[in-house]
Structure formats: structure tokens, C-alpha cells
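Entry 14. Ran structure prediction on the chain below.
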Amino acid sequence: MSDEGVKEQEIYAQRLEKARKWRELGFHPYGSGYRPLHLASDILARHEKDAPEALEKSAPVYSVAGRMVALRSFGKAAFIKLRDRTGDIQVHVKKDTLLDAFELFKLSDLGDFVGVVGTLFRSKTGELTISATRFTPLTKALRPLPEKWHGLADTEARYRQRYLDLVANPGVKEVFLKRTRLVKLIRDFLDDRGFVEVETPMMHPLVSGAAARPFTTHHNALDIDLYMRIAPELYLKRLVVGGIERVYEINRNFRNEGISTRHNPEFTMLEFYQAYATYEDLMDLTEEMLSEAASALAGATRLKYGDHELDFGKGWKRIPMSEAIREAVPGLSDKDMSDPDRLRHELLRTRHADAEVAAVQQMTHGELVGALFEEHVEHRLTHPTFITRFPTAVSPLARRNDESPEMADRFELFVAGREIANAFSELNDPLDQKERFLAQVEAKRRGQEETMDYDEDYIRALEHGMPPTAGEGIGIDRLAMLLTDSPSIRDVILFPLLKPLPR
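Output, C-alpha cells:
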């Protein structure tokens, strides 16, 4: 065993012995319940401007509880930092004041949970401090807190032991509090506009809602395979058919894909649908909603993300996909964008492996346009930008444009080089939708992995009639990354999926 391992075992044994001594003194080291009457932040806010003399005269008494996160000992006295759910407060413990209870303090360690009752005063350094008159052990921590958490070279350790990350780094907790607030802001925004929040199935009998690789599971009683949902889209649109004209869901999706700073196989999406609206209406709604969210969370519509300063103020750029490609690729004309051979030639400039070349050769015109956009444009879109007029071939659930049927009434929102939202005027023509599903089945037969199944019941629902509708999906995790200046999706997911450590 390493020296570090031996030391950990020694600490564990020492703390276990202290827990035993707590029991001897009449205190259960893993007791049941404790009711602190006050919170650290409330105490500090209430007395922020009080002078030492005023505190000495009023002698307010407070009862708090929390984890010991700092300790400065002076033999018969000590200062500790106590952290509750609202923040830290300093506590002064003295043998002359606590008497026999001081022995309980001496058996305490950093990481322990304790309860304190005492009188508030200002220390010589001016810090608001509780002078403990009662000290109650609550929970003995057998393992110590990390001493130099910021210095860990393995950043995955923070994700694997998020409980320590939250204790050691208050800024991490703030990120997740902001994320929670973001979701609440979105809920309030949609609720105020008459949207109804629902929950739809997580396990689907078909692969539906988006073109992606699913996770497969099996239901033993029914002896059928099921798929963890890729997206709730087709269920939510069934509800629009049923008369819930404004509907949304904030919940988990699952995609059996790679893991990166932008991708986690389990992620949170907002999807919402609005009857009698178009994709253009949703651009206006999205801009308003996210501008308000940025202002509420960051204090302004201009905010820092990495090396960028993003402007979430209203007036976001809106540009067709083909025009964005022409701006990024010199030499491509408007006529070229309609020529599959010209686009294929352009794409093959960067494809050299046989498999890559073969894949490009099989691409349809719409797939070529989409691939050129991903390669040349996406990473350049820093400020919020709506990319519009997607090829219908890569938009199997979107309505065709009346004037240009080869294009779909669709947009995607990009910020800081990544997709944040996807929306379109919904395809409510059952005959057209049937043809698109069949095209997806054919693509799957040709070996394409990210396709959707033929959903006969959804076609039946459309045959009963769905009003003109627009719908949108927004990635909550990626949005939280932007609004908290987090470089990785793992920084905004409490427990991201990680490769297991070797045993």
C-alpha cells in the first residue's frame, strides 16, 4: 500500500475513535434530526452594518447548523467556519464558555456537521462571529475533505466525486443553482403565455422524434424491445392533435452517441409546440425568452463565454443556410448551391479516407448542403444567429416551404459555435409525412444508422387533423453552459456519464 493509502487508513481509524468517544459522551455521531433556527446568510444580511458596540449591547442569540469547513485552533479557543445551505459563518469556541462541551469540539474534525447556539459579535478583524455557548455534534465525517481541491490534475475526479466538488468549490454550487433558476425562468415564461407542461413516455416502442442512435432496453413481461427516447416530439404533437394547443416538456433524452465537452448521452431538453404559429413566430419567442433569461442570470444581455463576449440583446441575425455557406466558402455561387456535383466536389476537398469519400458519394443534395454547413459555418457563429431554410431532405418532420418545396420552414439557433435550438413549422400533411417516414426506412436499409422508424399511429393521428403548428427543442445543458461560462457540458450536469475506473 502507498504512503498516501496508509495515511488515509490512519485518519479513518482516528476519526472512527473520535466517533466512539462522542457516543461515550452521550452524543450519537449519526443522530436523527436537529432544528437550527437561523441561516448563515440571513444573519450576515441582518447585521451587515451593525457596529461592534451595538452588537455587544443587543447580544442577539442565534442557532445554526452546518459542516465545519475551516478551523484555526489556539489551544483553549478556536475559530471555525460553519457552512449551511446559504453560505458560511464564523464561530468562536472557547473552553471557558463551553466548559465540558469543549471536549466535544476537540473531538471534531473538518467535514463534521455540528450545531451551534451562541451570541453574535464582531471579531477583532471586523467579521461577524457567533460566540458558541452550546456545541452539538451531529455527524462525524470519517474521510477528510480534500486539502487542495483546485490543484487536482485529474479534472474527472471532480465529476466522479461531485459531492466533494460542491463542498470544496462554492462556485460549482452556484453554477447548479443558476441552472435551476434558468429552468424556472423558462417555465414561468411559457406558463405566462398559456403553455401547459406535460410528461410523455421515456420508453418508446419505435425510434422516433429525431435522427439519432437510441439506447435499447427490454420489457420482460411484454417480451418486447423498447427504446429510451431520443425526443418527445411525436407524443407532444399527438397532444396538439388532441387539443392542447400550447404544450411543453422539460425532461431527459437519451442518445447512444459519443461523449465530449458538448455531448452527454443523457441530457435535458425543452420541447414546446404552439398551434397556429410558424417557425418565424418561434424565432421571435426564442429571442425574447433567452434574452430575458440572460439578463436575469447574468445581469445583462452581454455576457462573457470563454474568449467571447456574447450579445443576447434583441435583434439576432437571421440568415438562410445556403447564404451562410456562400459567405464562408469563397467561389461558391448561388447557382452552385443547387448543383450536387459542385457541392460534392467542394466537400471532397477535405475527405481523403476511402470510407469518407464513399459516404460523400452517397449523399443527397440536402445532405451535402448540411455537411458543408457543419464543416465551414457552424464553428464561426459566435453571437446568437438563426440559420433558416434547411433542405427538406435533412428535415423529415418539418413542413415544406410553399415557394421552394426542396426547403423546409425550419431554423436552428447557434451561439458560440454550437447548436442551441432546433425549430420548424410542423409537417401536418399525413401523406407527405408518410413519404418522409418511408424515406427514413429506406435510408436505414442502405445502412444509415441515425434514422427514424415508420410510426403508423402518428400518421393516423395526423389523419385526424393537426392544426398549423410550430415546434422547437432547446438544449438546456448547452444553454446553461453559455449562461454560466462553463467550458464543458460536464460542468452543468451534476453526475455526467464517465468511463468506469479500472478495478
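The chain has 17 helices and 18 strands. Will compare against last week's run tomorrow.
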